[in-house]
Structure formats: structure tokens, C-alpha cells
Amino acid sequence: MIGFFFHYHVTSFYKLEPCVASLDQLFLDPNDPKKYSGPMPHHIDALLQLASGLEYIHSKNLVHGDIQPENVLISVDSACKEETTLKWANFELTRNVSERGKGKTHQLGGNNAWLAPELQLTRKRKKDVEENSYKETAKSDVFAQGLVFGTLFLNGEHLYGSMEKEKEISQNIIEGNPINMQKIDGKLRDCYENDLLKKMLENDPGKRMTSTQVVDQLKSIKDQIAGKEKELLELCGRDNRLDLTENIKKLIQFGINLNAKDDGGRNALHLMCRNYSSPKLTDAIKLLIENKIDVNAKDNDGLNAIHYLCRYHSSQNLIKAIEILIHFGIDAKATTNDGSNALHYLFRYNASPNLSDAANILTELGLDLMTEDEIGWDAFYYLLNKDKKEMKIWFDRGAVLGQGGYGTVFKGKFGGRDVAVKRIQLHHVDQREEDAMLKLDHPNIVKLFHCESDDNFMYYAMELCDASLDQLFLDPEDPRKYKGPMPRHIEVFHKLASGLEHIHSKKLIYRGIKPSNILISATPARRHIEVTLKWCDFGLAKSVNEKGLHSWSGVKGTRTWYAPEVLKKLIYREKAEQEEFWGTVQSDVFVLGLVFGYLFLKGEHLYGSSEKEIHKNIIEKNPVNMQKINGELRKYYEDDLLRKMLEDDPRKRITSKEVVKQLESINNKLTEKEEELRRLCFRDSSSGLIEKINDLIQLGIDMALQSLSFRSGGLRSRSCSRVSSLSDFARRSERRSERALEKSALPPTLLTEKEEELRQLCERDSSSGLIEKINDLIQLGIDVNAKDKYGRNALHLLCRFNSSSDLRDSIQILIKHGINANEKTNDGCNTLHLLCQNHSTSNFIDAIQILIQQGIDVKEKDKNGRNALFFLIRNSSMDKHLKANVFRFLIRHGIQVHSENEESCNLYQDFFKENDNWGKICFDFLVEEGIRFGWHDACEHCQQILSIKERPRLRLQHHQMFSSCYLVFNSLMEEWAKSTQKSGESELDIKNPTEWLREKAEQYHQSETEKRYKEDFEFMAEVSEQVKDGSNSGYFNCDNYERYLRSMYSIAEMTGSKESMGQILLFYLLPFDFPIYYGNKKESDIKRAKIEWDRTLFSWAHTETDEYYGKYLKEDANEGFFLPKEFKHKCHGEL
């Protein structure tokens, strides 16, 4: 057996790949049904693919031995038809060679037309080469590869003659006479002949290039071609009145890739249609298209060539250019990323006198003048507004969010996101607002994305929020009232103070503090709604000096939200001795204190109700409503914070930075009180318990962080605030045992409420009492499968949001009581998708196993084509090591990694690049091969494999285990040989490593860890002896298979041999790390066969679309000449 080739441009040993044709079929007669007419890589890419594949084969100390076009397979990516790959195949004549490329062969394979001259001579003289040693055997492959390259350049002809005259070819090869070299196009020959082909076709193998040198030379040529491709793009990208067709022809003859693109995704045709204003435009377009440029290619913004013509071209030949593109098959109806079509671009930008003629052509093709783009505008709208300035900010005039003295705020869009658009008449614009917002970047300050103006207004695109703080305290019947969640007081205060501190740090004074300028942003997070408070409206902001002072040219701000030093100026027109004290950053701190009081008082002002009363009491230092704040709250906030913020003298007043620090101190005290409440609920059964609880609740402690347990009566309750007295506890406890009898007596309305309570419990409660609470609700007779408006049942919410250590048992409870584990949400997500989105707990895999046991389909996709792996990779809360293990677990259970969803594939690639590049190599192999592990439903190949009888099955499995160890061992030795040798260490002899491994084993004998390494090296030495004859697996002891793999993984990890680690973990150890229970051996033969096949999982993994795989594997098992006849270690008994 040759071994396992693990390379993009070499077909896999373990399974035939789904390739569409061989290279010789590319050159068949057009009428031949076997002719391949599909896509091909650009010639430089095709040559590089073949060269790198051969280099890889040689790097494994092997020669191919039968290089010719029919042994080159063409593989086309089913997901992306443009991804075409060439792969070497047919390794029947492949054999081992020495490090210098020498080797022995038992036969000379291949057609004479594809043999190197030294092999031609051998055949001609009819020498017996049974044991003859060829000094440069690998170089023979290089010569044959040069012949294949020539065939590509000559569209199927042979470099040395006609394929009908094989003797002529053979003679010309011997004489070094490539008679057809001159037929290669001149520019291509200049590029390849001297630097590559002649060196590959050198008659003396000693002077011939190596496969590595071929790869290096091709990379150099590719760089030269890339330079010419750049030259073409630059040529087409310039506005030029000259005829460029001759220059383009010269570049085309050089063999460049006409479909090369610039950073914006634009090819030569795009740039030509955008910039070239010569009357020769149509000739240049024809030239590019006739030379196979992709007429329908799109740039990064989704524009094709017709979009570019309609947007930029106003010359007389616009119509003819459009007609040429249509003639050559351009999709004239194509839309860009923002939903624009050719008509939108034509009417929006083009000033051509032929506008109506161009529009007629497009409408005749089916484009509709009334079709809207994603912004909601049709072609007519653009025509009417053509001369107006193009605006990047869009807003809905009917969606008014608010109005002020000088401006209006609308709901709108900017850059694809929803925004709030503030519109102000130009003569009322205060440049300070824009300047201030551009300086500020803080999570508690509304972000300014963009500002622009037209002839009448200035527009600001800002972060869109849900409400302002004053809407929190509107009448319940008022439709504007904010009814969403709010953080605790301490969190609100800290957010606002942090934002104000940032404003002051930028040398700005706000001057506009009031509840209506504090916005509430509620956004969905992983397990809850994330609520943030943000400062907005900086029209009154002004710069201050280094002391925090500014000059004041008139009192600003709303009349009830003033600091005393400002009020005195307003009311009494005072002339203070120090004018500078009228405007300090400390004025903002005083008003922030008023806002804190406003929150404590649920919408009331600390200093009164009417404007006159408020002014009077602020000046007289009399916060009349302070006493209305709860006593316990006041004790924590009044002296330590509020009094210091409301200090009359701004010079003695606390700073915004000190406010933040003081709030952090208060929060620490409240945290202690939360712990006190938990202890109270658990231990205190006294009559004063309710009063104590209420006192703690009124402090504003967090009741949602932990469920609270009450020992009284054995009851567990989610919220103390729901219970009014201990007698309630007792009554509820006594009735607990009666609930099962009362199930059917619950009215439908109450049942619906309880079903909602179950969903909320599963979503939010991660406490240790979760299972008991779920049981309590289920005993009421509720429908566990009831869903919310998003189609989510309790299990969905549990899997999406809950991080309880009881997650596994909670899932089992719900399933036990009839919940459907396979149910989907409105978005098409199943429980596995939701579980993978958020969870990071140690029992994660246990939870997945439960779902799999319930028949969950691991390869199921949501409505956007995303499977569980997609959500797993995006799970930012999960430890990378755990994520990699879950990835392996899902692959083990047959999840599809070769997703048709491009976003998913990119995510998987990024995950491996960032975390385990060795894993990426293995992952890429699975993707390219289309492999999915495990047994497939209704799969003919699986049925064939399972029908193999016991004796041939065990022989084949034995050989597969041997093959796996052989490959891993040799791969590990090669990696080790390349690593730096330690000082004093004996040199590794890769041909005979057994003694070296035994020497290594003797070096480890002190600590327990070293003793384990000693055992691992000893087992590796054992493997070395058992696999040294790569063609005979009879000396292999497969009873130790798993132990051999684990020893090799341990040594690979110790030595940093990443590629070997990846192969062992992702391929060979999967069935041992994540076993599947098929039933014991007393059960059916099929189950017993699955258990035995499982050990060699990777060796028989296949796609469900293979045509012959199962048949071939069965034939190998029954007739395989390479299978052992005797077993030295009797690991299968007498077979």
C-alpha cells in the first residue's frame, strides 16, 4: 500500500474523489459526448496546481511513474463552479525512492509518449529492469510533467510529434527534438520556454529541474504575469482617447488572466466601461469578451459591466456598447448589493443625450421603471432628482421621533443601518454640536455616524435608541410611555456619570443635562435585553479651559435644570466677582444630581413642582422632596453622594470623576446587601422576615441575579417581592402535594400564564433550583410544547439562554414530559442550533448527546442554510478548547462541514486560522473531499459495507488500522526530522528510527510525566517495528491500535508536531474520544458490525454521492491481495 496523500492536487488514497473529467477529455472532438467543456483554471494556475501536487508526492519519497493527461483529473467545486482544481491520480505504478530521488521499480509503466528519454532508452534496448536502480527516478516525473504542460499549451498536441505516431514521439524525445515547440504562441513561449520548459525537458536527468524548482519557477512566472495583469487594469482604468486595442492584444498574448481584479473587485471590462471614452470602446469590449473575460463578473459592490456603462458613460457609443454586452450574454437585469439595477444608474447619474434610447433597450429586456432599490426609490425618482446633490443619509418623513425648537428627529438609514436623523435648518445650525460629538466616543454617549447638508438643512445620522428617560414616567395610557426593561438605579447612575466624566475629559461642558436628553437603548444580548443609557443633544456643549471653566455669553439649558450659580445669573442678573464661576464643569455635576433625584422620585423634581418653586428652593439650598426618597436608599446615597453633588458652592462640589468613584463604592456595599438577602432567605424564619426583605429590596439590590431559596416550608421562590407574609409560604407549601389533582381545574387563561412562566424560567433562571421549579409548573398540567410569538418552546429557550449546571437534567425533564426535541422556531432553528449559539458550560457535550439520542438531525439547517457548526463558531463565550472538542464531536456524528453556505465556510476557515492551523488542514481536506462521517440513511455504500462478512471484514479493518498507524508514524517522523536537533542528541535515522526511539525512551524516567513519555516512546518504537514493511500488515498488533495512536499523539504534542496532532485528533481518535452506543454484541450482526467498523471510522468515511465506493470496499475485503493472510500477534485469532 502506498499511503495517504493529503494534498489539494493529489487524489485521496482512501476514496476516489468526485472529479468530472480527465485532462485528455478537454481536447476531444467537440461532437464527442465525453469531451469536457467545463471551466478550467488560468494556465499559470493549472501548471502550479500540477507542479505543487507532484512536489508533494516527491516530498513523501515517492515517484508517480505514470504521468500523462489521462491521469490528471479535473475537479469542479459543486458550491462554486468557478473553483476548478487539477489533481494527480492513478498511483498504481507509484513507488518509494530515496531522499536523493533514487528508486527501484519492478516495471516501467506508462505510454511511451509520456516517458522521459532515460526510460525511453531502457525500453528500446529491452533491458531487464526488474531490480535496476535509476539514479534520478523522480526527475523522470518532471520530464513527463513538462510534456503535459506542453500539451496544455498546444491544446492537446504533443510537444514531440503526432499522437498517431508514437514511435516518432519516442525517437524525438531521445534526440531532444520538441518539433512542436514553435507552435506555442510567441508570447507564451517567451514566458515559459527558456525559463521552464527547456529545463524540465533537459535530456540529462542530472541537469534537469527538480519538482521543487519547477514550483519556484512557476511562482516567479506568476509574479511576472500578475505585473502584466496590473498593467492591463491600469491601462483600462485611465480615461484615454487613444485606441488601446493593440496594447491589450499584446498583454493578452502574454497569457495573462483577463479576469484578474483590483482591490475593488473590478476587472478590465468594468474599468473599460467606466473610464474609456474613445470611439474604439466597442472594439475594446469585443476584444476582451472574445478572449474569455467574464462578461457577468461583479465587483465588490455587485456592479457588472452594464452598471458601469449606465453610470459613467455618456458618449455617442453608449447604445452600441450596451447592445454588445447584451449580445454576449450579460445579465442586464442584475442588481447590485443595494438593489440597484441598470435603469437606476442610468437615470441617477447619466447625462447622455441617448438616455431615452438606452432606457428603451433596457425596458424591452424586462426592466421595470417602477422597481425600487433597497432605499425605496425607483428610476423615475432618480430622474427627477438627478441634478440634486446625492445624499448618503435617508430618512422617512412620516416617522417623526421628536421635535425641538430648531429641529426635528426622524427615523432613517445610513450605510445600511437604522439611525435617528436629526434635521436642523441651516441658519440654526450650531457647529459646536458636530464638533463636540466628533470628539466623543463612549458607550454612554450617542454616536454620530455622519453629517451632511443640502440647500436648506443640516442632517445628522446618529445612533437610534428606544426612548428618552422622561418617557419612563409618562402616564400608563400615553402611547409614548417607555415600558421596557431598565437597569437598577446604581447601574443607571454609573452609566450616566461615566458618560459625563468622558465629556469633561474632552474639555467640554455639557450644559444640556435633562431627562429628555438621556436616551434608553435596549438591544438583545445573549441571555437578556442589554439596556444602556446614553447622553445626547450637544447643541449647547462648549469647550472649557484647563481649569474646567468657560466664558458665558448668555444662560443656556432648560429652566428647571440649572445649577445655583447659573440660576443667580438668570434671575438676579448677578455680577459675580469671578465671572468664570458662572460656567464650570461643576454646573453639569449639580444637574446630574437633579437627574439622580428625579429617578429616585419616579419623575418628580428634588426641588419642587413648579418652575418658580424649583428656582427658589435651588437658590435657598432646600431640596424639599429629598425626604420622599426611601429612608434606606437615602441613607446610602444622600450623605455620600447627593449632598456632595448638590453642593451650592461649585468650588466645593464633587467632580464627575469623583461621582464615578463614589458610585463604585456604593455598588460594593449593595453587593454585600445582596448576599445578606440570600442568607436571610435561607436561614431566617422569624416573624420579621418580610419586613427585613422589603428593606433590602428597597435598596435597589439585584433581585434577578440569583433565585432566592426559603427554607420555611421547603418552598423555593424566584422573587421575594412576590410574597407578602410567611403565612403565604405555609399555605402554598401545604397545597403543593394537591397540585397534581388540581391540574385540570386551572382555567385556560391561567394555564397560558403558567406556560409563559415556564418559558421565562427556562430563559432566565440558571439557579440550582431550576429543575424543581420546572417540575412544579409541569404538574399544573401546562402544555410544555406551547410557543411564544417567535415559535420558541421552553426547550428552545432553555437551550438558547440557560447556563445552569442542571442544563442536562432540565433538558431530560422537558423531554420526559413530552416536549418535542426536534421542533423548530419560526427561523428554522432547532434545539441544537440554539444550544450552539450561546452555551459554554462543561456539560455542553452531554446536552448535545441527549438531543442526538432524541433523534435530532445534526446536519439540519435553518432557513438561511446555516447548520450547528455555523452557530458554534460564532459562539464568543465558549472556551476555544471546548469549542474545538464540540466541533470534533459534531463531525463525529456526521455533521456536514462542506456547507453550501459561503458565510459558514468562511467562518470555519477563520476559526481554524485563529486557533488551530493544523486543524484547518484536516478541515479543508474534509470539505474538499465532501466527507461526512458515520452511517448515512438510505445510503447504498453503507449497506454494502455493513454486508461484508465477519472474516473479510476483520482482515480489512486490521489492515486499515495498520495503514493509519503507518501514515501517522511516518508523518510524525518527517515532522520531527525537520525540527531542530537538540545538542548532544543522536541523529534521527528516518529509515530505521526504532533504536533512536528506544534511546529517547531511556531519557525519561524521573517524574510521573516523564515515565508516561517513556512508555509513549516505547510504544512508538513498537509501532516502528510493526510498520517498517509498508506493504505487509501481518506483523501489526491491532489490539493496541488505540494505545499506539494515543502514544503518538502524546509525543506529537510534546514536540509541537502540529500537523500530526491534527490528523490524529480529527481523524483517528474520534471514535475513541466520542464513542457511539450501537448495542452489545449479543444483538444483531449489523450492530456488531457497526461497533467493529467504528474503530476505523476515517478509513471508510465517504460521501453519499460516490458511485462505486461501497462496491469497491466490499471487493477489497473479499479479494484484496494486499490483506494479511496470517497474523503474527493473533489479534484476530485464527483468521
From TrEMBL:
Mapped ANK repeat ranges: 264-300, 790-826, 827-863
Database matches in SUPFAM superfamilies: Ankyrin repeat, Protein kinase-like (PK-like)
UniProtKB keywords: ANK repeat, ATP-binding, Coiled coil, Kinase, Nucleotide-binding, Serine/threonine-protein kinase, Transferase
Any one biological process term the GO annotation gives: IRE1-mediated unfolded protein response
Signal peptide: none
Protein kinase domain residues: 1-221, 395-666
EC number: 2.7.11.1
Binding residues for ATP: K422
MF terms in GO: ATP binding; protein serine/threonine kinase activity; RNA endonuclease activity; unfolded protein binding
GO cellular component, one term: IRE1-TRAF2-ASK1 complex
Enzyme class at the top of the EC tree: transferase
Coiled coil: 656-683
SMART domains in UniProt: ANK
InterPro entries given in the database record: Ankyrin_rpt, Ankyrin_rpt-contain_sf, IRE1/2-like, Kinase-like_dom_sf, Prot_kinase_dom, Protein_kinase_ATP_BS
Name of the protein: non-specific serine/threonine protein kinase
